[in-house]
User: Fold this.
Amino acid sequence: MGEDQDRVVVGLVLPQWGRVVRTGEDVPAWTVVGPDGLALMPVAQFLREFAACGNAAGSVRSYAGALLRWCRFLQAVEVAWDRATPAEGRDFVLWMRQATKPIAGRRTVTAATAGRVNPITRKPYQGDGYALRTIRHNNAVVRSFYEFFGERGEGPLLNPMPRDRAGGLRAHAHHNPMAPFGFEGRLRYNPKVPLRRRRALTDQQWGELFGVLRCDRDRALLALAVSTAARAGELLGLRSVDVDWGEQTIQVRRKGTGAAQWLPASPEAFVWLRLWIAELGEIAGDDPVWQTRRRRSTGSGSPRRSVLTYDALRAMLRRANATLATNWTLHDLRHTCALRLLRGHGVSLRDVQVVLGHAHLSTTQIYLELDDGEVIARVHRHLAEREHPPAPPRPAAGYDHDDLAVLLGSDVLGSDVRGGDVLGGDVIA
Assistant:
């Protein structure tokens, strides 16, 4: 289909064609298979190259899911992967902007709140559609997929996800060979994403959230989250050997790089962690810290605890949010920790960058932006002072009012002390 032809994508339902599966190998750990259970060779070749470049297994899985969505779209519009054009890329973005996510990802608790804003947290509820950042990620994956085959002389001549270059020139048309290559231009069909605002809990909101937690495990986990700013996946990977009780630090493996880093935690968090470990019992050095509270039989031997999963962590937060009528997430605690550090004494922006694990300082600078609530509070104080201005200061004892009026002006002294003498800060008529 040419770019000048219109394809109706509203209401288009993608077939449940193929799925993302584990390969059973370390590299790549994930791939995409078709209805026959066989791997899609073009996708498998790309993911193998992607994993060989040092990308983590989680990134491979994310790319596999994005390519599966793209392949399903091509199946729905009956276009082969190597015959796709920018028209398919455009229609794919148009479809994602109005489509509803599959049932597995659809909200089931309170569908009536989808897309609305919580009046307490002032955060929007998660909707049933694809987020703008998800669309941009999908576009980048498809672009990389076709660039990989373009380097090999395979696939379509034009990338289905073209760049929007100024003047319509080819990439680096007038590049100086002595200078480094610069930015080539944004992807043409990338939606604009609003600036991500920081979101943090006040001390009162944190106290309310902490107060509705039901067990020491949950209290220890959230107390560590709000004092270390660790991500959910980083905290869930905590082992017994990763806890230094003497230094009151925990060791996490950073998202993306997998680098080990020790993070300081609050004494209160270690108190709750100690209580949870006491309930958990004796654990070995490599045993996970976060486990289920109940033991379940696996069919062989005595019942055992299971490792706490991300879905179980989200379920815990859903219960707390249902009690408080809020929609907090674990990532909000990360923002809360960052703001507390910046407002403290002796902690620099560079220190916060290290604690958060940001590769670039510009990512950390989002926490320097003014918070809407703080701005509103200051403006309210300003308006209140204008409506009820504070009383002028009284002159010290022993000074004559008329002499002070000549030196400072009567407006500075006020009219309440005119005609009297000042003694001990009180006016004597």
